[in-house]
Amino acid sequence: MGCLATTHTKAIQKVDVPTFDWPIAPFPKLRYPLEEFVRENAQEEARCLEEVEDLIVKWGKRGKPVAGIVIEPIQAEGGDNHASCDFYRKLREIARKHGCAFHVDEVQTGGGSTGKFWAHEHWGLDDPADIVSFSKKMLTGGYYHKADFSPDKPFRIFNTWLGDQTKNLFLTEVLKVIKTERLLEEVKRSGKVMLQGLYELQTRYPHLLNTARGIGTFCAINVKDEATRNNLILKARNKGVVLGGCGVTSIRFRPALVFKEHHAHLFLNIFNDALAELN
Amino acid sequence: MGCLATTHTKAIQKVDVPTFDWPIAPFPKLRYPLEEFVRENAQEEARCLEEVEDLIVKWGKRGKPVAGIVIEPIQAEGGDNHASCDFYRKLREIARKHGCAFHVDEVQTGGGSTGKFWAHEHWGLDDPADIVSFSKKMLTGGYYHKADFSPDKPFRIFNTWLGDQTKNLFLTEVLKVIKTERLLEEVKRSGKVMLQGLYELQTRYPHLLNTARGIGTFCAINVKDEATRNNLILKARNKGVVLGGCGVTSIRFRPALVFKEHHAHLFLNIFNDALAELN
């Protein structure tokens, strides 16, 4: 229920499920490429941070104090929305100031696809996240947290396998491969090719594509409307490339960590062919 | 939340978790050995079935129709409480009559420890359960259900790995071993030794033990009080045997499926030594 209450994923998954009464703060809607809209984006982020603090104060007065802030390093299901490192550092300060736990959801971003093992490493926090959750690239689901957040009673959180050793074996292997095959460096290299390629495609097809963005291979691009987006995904699939949508008109790219520069070139050619058919 | 609302496990796990408003019917409190108290037990079961039907009617009138009945073939966390096959068949009829789904929770009983693959196979139902959940012995958690209970929309139930193939690999292997090593037959043999041994021990230590009961190796025995029960578990542990409590004064036995007759003898000797120290 907690997951479904926070997610921005498909509405069908929330039907008939009760939800929690909690405040949702706006995530900054930035203009891309980020380096061209620094001043406008800083204003938008300041607006959102102010709203976060207002909500915390307002809910506190209503006798429903905000226990924690849940935030993604890139708002993924919501449409691959980015925010600056400065935004996240200030958000962390707001959490600390008001005694809210700071939970960084790295389910999609964690495990290396942004070129660092944790996407929030990009931020340069002076006080680490209180709780970090992860999954996807790490072939399991889990979380880690500061010692203060341990349950205060034995058996408070308990299940049959207490962590599932078999999943830990997988995780150990995943971590080993990431390290020995230097996959974070691969991600940086192939991510650069990807993003550069997406910039070129949106220049070539400005009436179809806009707002290319990304860190590492964690990239996305917007299509002019939802129907065209879905059609483009279909055309790519018929050429052997599986893409996923996010938000209303975005396509998100989530290649595996073993995705290399030549894969990026291969993909960009196929994507170009699919776009040419729509042209 | 649904799991925590239905379980009879440790109270600490429910603290601070919201719960659902739903009716809990009494589970029969039978006298053991079952074959000695047939008439009394049939009366107790009839009382409980009547209460189930009353609750369904009462909640229906209140505009909160009962969607389903959740039942274990042996009420496990509640203290290893048994009921007759006749009780379960009648309960299934009540569910059908009132349009309630009939969900058999085989998390603890499923996978072979009662000498049949599913404990509810002992009942001889003419209409199968609508939903069966399982875990434990099957090294994964899952459920199966009648086709009518499939979600009516795509993506209604969805997660990243859609069933987790790695768990299916484990499950395939578990099923293979159960079959090729004829583990259900082993369970019947070692379970007979276990239960016979527990009967003998409660005759030898009548002031400490009572109410030995079980099907296959899924056995339990009651200790005179909670403190003595916990002390007995500790003494057994110090002799190399890990036991678990259930209910307030019960000890439950949940050996692995590879538990053989000689393991049962080995255990009974150690358990006898632990009891002798308490004597």
The percentage of residues in β strands of chain A lies in 5-15%
- The DSSP helix count of chain A reads 7
The major β-sheet of chain A equals: 4 strands, mixed
Gyration radius of chain A (Cα, Å) is 20 Å
SSE series of chain A: HHEHEEEHHEEHEEH
User: What gross morphology of chain A would you assign?
Assistant: globular
Termini gap of chain A: 43 Å
Can you put this structure into words, describing what you see?
The structure is a homodimer of 279-residue chains. By secondary structure, chain A is α/β, with parallel strands linked by helices. Chain A has two domains: 2-180, Type I PLP-dependent aspartate aminotransferase-like (Major domain) (Aspartate Aminotransferase, domain 2, 3-Layer(aba) Sandwich), CATH 3.40.640.10; 183-278, Alpha-Beta Complex (Aspartate Aminotransferase, domain 1). Chain A is built from seven helices and eight strands; from the N terminus they run H-H-E-H-E-E-E-H-H-E-E-H-E-E-H. In chain A, helix 6 (226-238) crosses helix 7 (261-278). Chain A starts with a helix and ends with a helix. The interface between A and B is medium-sized, with 17 and 18 residues.
